[in-house]
Amino acid sequence: MSGSSKAQQTINLEDMSLQQLQKIKTQLESEMDELTTAFTQMKQAQGAFRECKACIGMLRPENQDKTVLIPLSNSLYVPGKLSNIESVVVDVGTGYYVEKSAKDASGYYDGKIDYVQENAKKIQETVEQKQASYRGLLEIMQFKLTQQQRQQQQQQQQEGGSGAPAATSAA
User: What's the pLDDT at 161?
Assistant: First the structure.
């Protein structure tokens, strides 16, 4: 397999029509919206993992046997007693739960926080690249529009004054 098949093809935007540039603009806007949504979701996930880690930090000997409210949903809680501060049940995704020591669970959430942070950083870099491309595209579109307007004005002037140039009278 040749290495040239993996090379990126570059397209000169200045050679494209305004209609083609408009399609690219729409596509870039859509991609930026999707990436921004993904970035927001990553930050929300990171916040949730940090909250889980903070809750694990509350498992201290002085809190053992204290009454706590256990969430059954976002708005429904039941009272319970904190009887075991040594282990927790961790949601590892897709409906699976694993019992871990508090120390292992804290390490697990540290790993998740770092992983999400790295992905959010990559998404942010991609958004910044897309924004730069978008700005460049807008500049080219503005240049083409200005150029098109000038051509239309010149054409109108040529059509309006199609006769010989007006003679100036010497007084």
Answer: 59
Please say if the pLDDT value at position 70 is more than 80.
Answer: yes
| Alpha carbon separation from 55 to 7, 48, 58, 136 (Å, rounded) | 49, 11, 5, 47
Phi first, then psi, for residue 78 (nearest 5°) are -125, 145
Number of H helices, E strands in the chain: 2, 4
Bridge-partner residues for 90, per DSSP? 98
Cα angle value 32/144/125 (rounded, 5°): 20
Rounded to 10°, the helix 18-57/102-160 angle is 160
d(CA 117, CA 136): 29
Strands (E), 3-119: 67-71, 77-81, 87-93, 96-101
Average pLDDT, the chain: 88
